[in-house]
Design brief:
alpha/beta; Rossmann fold; Helicase, Ruva Protein, domain 3; 3 domains; 5-stranded parallel beta sheet; 20 helices; globular
Length: about 450
């Protein structure tokens, strides 16, 4: 029985969540049916369904009541519960009451794939794993590492939906790039992408910045202001560092997301907006919720889908391609990295992530008098790494040393990824180069 012969019923009152999960499962070859309530789901079960993906929180009869009704009429039908973090204990109880398994929100798509496969009794094979593809990346973006390629595949799945997205990652890791891709690959791509950083807005003006204000709303408000939500109408609003949003404004943001309406400061008239929200933070919002600094209901509302951006030190294959792009931008033309400079860049830990790398290449281009960046052109703490590098293998003798990896990747960059030319420059055979590249790829996969 092929996957196209299996029908999955998705029961969730959030259309964006149904769209997201349904789109992903359809990409795997399943047929999809949708229900917005428990009552609608029970009606649809009069038709053949092979598995039910059931949200715990539903209007009308609850997910638990729906589960009991399903078990009364379809004792053997697989049911997977979808629950918010706070409902995990309830979900465990539900499993004992007849659910096959449960998934916590935000739903991890790989976990969903495996859970559906297991519930249907399908065997795993290499052919079963999804080979996701994504649209072409805009110029200047680098997704060379395994981690970033996987992220791009995930973004291609979630972008077409209307679901709010929470982007987690360290400062400077590229969260705004992720937001721009979600927008560009969505049906809203031709609309506006409005970006704001909650940490940089004065607390006294944040409400006006987000929701606008009426003329005369406060001293100095000589004209009306539409606000960011209205400016992003028909497009996407990216709120960076949402963890810095003052607690007293969080209920108003929650209401705007839930109702699709904003009320400007100094006005009693709500205004309808069609804006998708993408939020980002470097904070652990679960901890902020536990410590009373972030509303739990807002957290669950913005966290329908969560994606993480790995720090640059965990995706080193991206370092040298990014460095070359930045160097060419700042130099106004082609600039090469010397092997020693490339090694320094490769082994640095990059606590400031992509932002630190960009600043380092700007400095290097200012100091570089020719078309080759040397270690002395890099920031001192990075250049100092060259003196401490060793070409000996890591403690695991089967792994390539950091220096060897850096040299190989830098040479490939210099040769525009021409493996034959790179092998000649490195003084090894093309077959040996391919073997080493496979080893690099394997190590990257294990690390991600």
């Amino acid at each position: 029985m092929s996957k196209t012969e299996y029908t999955i019923l998705i029961v969730d009152d959030e259309s964006s969540q149904r769209q997201l999960l349904g789109g992903f499962l359809e990409s795997l070859g399943y047929r999809i049916a949708e229900a917005g309530s428990g009552e609608e789901a029970l009606e649809l079960l009069q038709q053949p369904v092979d598995i039910v993906l059931l949200d715990v929180r539903l209007p009308g009869i609850s997910g638990m009541e729906t589960l009991a009704a399903i078990r009364a009429s379809h004792a053997a039908l697989p049911v997977l519960l979808v629950t918010a973090y706070a409902d995990v204990r309830q979900a465990v109880t539900a499993v004992k009451s007849g659910a096959n398994d449960y998934l916590a929100k935000p739903v991890d798509l790989e976990e969903l794939r495996v859970a559906v496969r297991d519930a249907l009794g399908l065997s795993e094979s290499a052919a079963d794993r999804p080979e996701l593809t994504h649209p072409p990346l805009p110029d200047g973006l680098v997704f060379e590492s395994v981690a970033m390629r996987r992220l791009a595949d995930t973004l291609a799945v979630i972008a077409p939906s209307e679901a709010p997205v929470l982007v987690q990652g360290e400062t400077g890791s590229g969260k705004e790039v992720v937001a721009s891709l979600i927008h560009a690959w969505s049906p809203r791509g031709n609309g506006p992408l409005i970006t704001a950083n909650c940490a940089s807005m004065p607390e006294s003006l944040i409400e006006s910045e987000l929701f606008g204000h009426a003329k005369g709303a406060y001293t100095g408000a000589s004209t009306a202001r539409e606000g960011l939500f209205r400016a992003a109408n028909g497009g996407t609003l990216f709120l960076d560092e949402i963890g810095e949003l003052p607690l007293h404004l969080q209920p108003k943001l929650l209401r705007a997301i839930e109702t699709g309406e904003v009320t400007p400061v100094g006005s009693d008239t709500p205004i309808r907006v069609d804006t998708r929200l993408v939020a980002a933070t470097h904070r652990q919002l679960e901890r902020e919720v536990a410590e009373g600094r972030f509303r739990e209901d807002l957290f669950y509302r913005i966290n329908v889908v969560e994606v993480g951006v790995r720090p640059l030190r965990d995706r080193r294959e991206d370092i040298l391609p990014l460095a070359r792009i930045y160097a060419n931008q700042f130099a106004g033309g082609p600039v090469r990295l010397s092997p020693q400079a490339a090694q320094c860049l490769f082994v640095h830990e990059w606590p400031g992530n992509v932002r630190e790398l960009r600043n380092a290449m700007q400095r290097a281009c200012l100091l570089c008098r020719g078309d080759i960046i040397m270690p002395e052109h890099l920031p001192p703490k990075i250049a100092a790494l060259c003196s401490g590098l060793s070409s000996s293998p890591d403690s695991d003798g089967n792994r390539l040393s950091q220096v060897e990896r850096a040299t190989i990747l830098a040479t490939l960059e210099e040769c525009n990824n021409n493996r034959t030319q790179a092998a000649k420059k490195l003084g090894i055979s093309r077959r040996a180069l391919i073997y080493k590249l496979q080893a690099i790829e394997s190590e990257s996969s294990k690390g991600n």
